[in-house]
Design goal:
Layout lengths: L1 H6 L34 E5 L7 E9 L4 E6 L10 E6 L5 E2 L3 H5 L18 H7 L14
Antiparallel strand pairs: 1-2, 1-5, 2-3, 3-4
Length: 142
């Protein structure tokens, strides 16, 4: 619970008055300081409930120390009910836009009513929705 309060992530079901021991900065993974995420930036990620899929996702909320809340909206039930989950920018399960195309892996694209997977292109999508890619190429993967 100290993690949640330290990084600024809301905890549901706990009284607002509850206080937990904050964690020190040394507890968190290091990452390049030039990586600045902002709401709406897009990336590719392994689906947390269906780990055999890689899907398009967006930054929903930026937390502290490199953590963020991601949102998945695909042309399935998630288009109406998005799936949100937390990641750190150094996670091995997040990738820059274009990763799947480069690796020749199928991507489940973000929700675009009236369009199918075969019509999806990151450059077109980013331009049409006036969003940018998350700067994940700056983060070395181990």
């Amino acid at each position: 619970m100290g993690w949640s309060q330290t990084v600024g992530h809301e905890i549901y079901g706990v009284p607002l008055s509850a206080q937990f021991t904050p964690l020190s900065f040394d507890y968190f993974p290091k990452y390049p300081s030039e990586v600045n995420l902002s709401r709406g930036q897009m990336f590719e990620t392994r689906h947390p409930r269906k780990p055999h899929l890689i899907v398009g996702a967006s930054v929903y909320r930026v937390l502290k120390f490199g953590y963020f809340v991601a949102e998945i909206r695909t042309n399935t039930y998630e288009c109406q009910s998005p799936l949100r989950f937390s990641y750190h920018v150094t996670s091995p399960y997040i990738f820059p836009c274009g990763f799947c195309e480069e690796m020749k892996i199928e991507l489940i694209p973000p929700c675009e009513p009236g369009r199918n997977k075969a019509q999806f292109n990151w450059n077109d999508y980013l331009t049409r929705y006036k969003v940018g890619p998350a700067p994940l190429k700056l983060i070395p993967k181990v």
